[in-house]
Amino acid sequence: MTTYTGAVFNNGAVSRLIDLAVACRRDSARALEDELARFCRTIRTSPETDWAMPVATVSALLDLLSDQLESGKPPATPIGFSERLAEAAGDLPGPEFLRLLSGLLRLQEREPLPHVDELPMAAWEAVLKFGRIAEFWWWVDSGEYEDFDEGVRQGVASEHPNRCHQDMSALAAELQEALLLFPTSQAWGAGLVEVIPWASRPVLRAILDAVHVHFEEQH
Fold this sequence. Notes:
Shape: elongated
Helix content: 55-70%
Structural class: mainly alpha
Largest sheet: none
Order of helices and strands: HHHHHHHHHHHHHH
Number of helices: 14
Number of domains: 2
Radius of gyration: 21 Å
Low-confidence stretches: none
């Protein structure tokens, strides 16, 4: 029987953690503990993700892979995985580093979720949390429409009528959360300007108001 175990190594939680660890090795300004705290925050603030793959399960998966890699018959891994793991691990053996990650994740899980005031969002985290806002740039910053208001109206109506309940409601949720998480222009500049350089608090408020108007008038 053909098995498809490669995704355990080159996709999903294990791959993301190794990518973060490699990034920390390459950039001394990035602390592994902080990136793991962001990883946990990403999972724990998403009910769907926390239901499907809670942090405790990710930790257990890392322990399981560590044991398998040290066994007398280690699993076949995709091309490039061993090299990535070696770079992430530094001076440690790969399996030992996976156990280290597992332990650090368990410690993070016991801690309260850090607010963005305590631990600012990384760019990768902001892209995940506010992906629909980032994608809205075309409607307001591409030059396709005569003015900002027209671009916003067209963007908000673009999924009408079949996908408003899914896409526009999700966009509205992202807009509201961004406005609450970053309540001042200074907080906004420190948190999201790298990922959404075209936007500001007034711009997001205008888009959110347009979504509400659309819902009231068309639904």
